Amino acid sequence: MFYILINAINFLEVAWEQRKLGDWGYFYYGHSAPKWSVVGDGGTPCVRYGELYTKSNSKIDHIYSHTNISVKNLKLSKGTEVLIPRVGEDPLDFAHCAWLSIPNVAIGEMISVFNTKQNPLFTAYSFNSMLKYEFAKRVEGGGVANLYYAYLTNIPVSFPSMKEQTEITQLIENLISLIAANQGKHLQIKNAL
């Protein structure tokens, strides 16, 4: 859907600027917060890589896990990071990227983190749609596949102006809300019959 929208509204403003992904931002790996360290509501809020598949879409604005690992051994978010799973069973599994919009959240192991000055929600949408197959080409391994950020830095990527990024993400968010509202109405009508 994102790719179709981008092609449909790509006439806006000026041409998109193309650079290598590594020129748009920088990567690092999440650290710690393994399954055994997860506790109830106490501890430091954290995002674990499995949650990228099961609990989030393109934006993380709710935290489900907490870890008892010491804060000095964790990588904490600033609220601008785009998270990319590092492990999956299928090359297309890596198109479950999400913007972590909350600061001071521990970013678990098996997650690559991309920091950029671009709109992080637009970046997550781009990773999940336009770059999905580029990511899949760079996956390494058999039954359990790995995606290392060193393989992503040279992918050519185009971004529009920040204003356009904001307008595009707002349009997508509005469409998602409209779809959700209509699905709710559809269920109400179906249940009433």
What does this structure look like?
The two termini are 31 Å apart. The protein is an alpha+beta fold and 193 residues long. It has six helices and 13 strands. It has a five-stranded mixed sheet with strand order 2-11-7-9-5. Strands 3-6-4-10 form a four-stranded mixed sheet. The chain has a two-stranded antiparallel ribbon with strand order 1-13. The radius of gyration is 18 Å and the shape is globular. The chain has one domain: Alpha-Beta Complex (Adenine-n6-DNA-methyltransferase TaqI, Chain A, domain 2).
Task: Count the domains.
Answer: 1
Number of helices: 6
Shape: globular
Examine the secondary-structure arrangement and name the CATH architecture. Answer: Alpha-Beta Complex
Please report the total strand number as a whole number: 13
* Helix-strand string: HEHEEEHEEEEEEEHHEEH
Q: Per DSSP, what share of the residues sits in E-state strands of 2 or more residues?
A: 15-25%
How would a textbook summarize the main sheet? 5 strands, mixed
Mean pLDDT score, rounded? Answer: 90
Derived from helix and strand composition plus strand pairing, the structural class reads alpha+beta
CATH superfamily: DNA methylase specificity domains
Quickly name the level 1 CATH class: Alpha Beta
Q: Assign the CATH topology.
A: Adenine-n6-DNA-methyltransferase TaqI, Chain A, domain 2
Return residue spans where pLDDT drops below 50 for at least 5 consecutive residues: none
Strand arrangement in the largest pleated sheet? 2-11-7-9-5
What is the CA-CA span between the terminal residues? 31 Å
* C-alpha-based Rg, rounded: 18 Å
Helix content: 25-40%
InterPro entries: Restrct_endonuc_typeI_TRD (IPR000055), Restrct_endonuc_typeI_TRD_sf (IPR044946), Type-I_RE_S_subunit (IPR051212)
GO molecular function, one term: DNA binding
Subunit structure: The methyltransferase is composed of M and S polypeptides.
Organism: Lentilactobacillus hilgardii (strain ATCC 8290 / DSM 20176 / CCUG 30140 / JCM 1155 / KCTC 3500 / NBRC 15886 / NCIMB 8040 / NRRL B-1843 / 9)
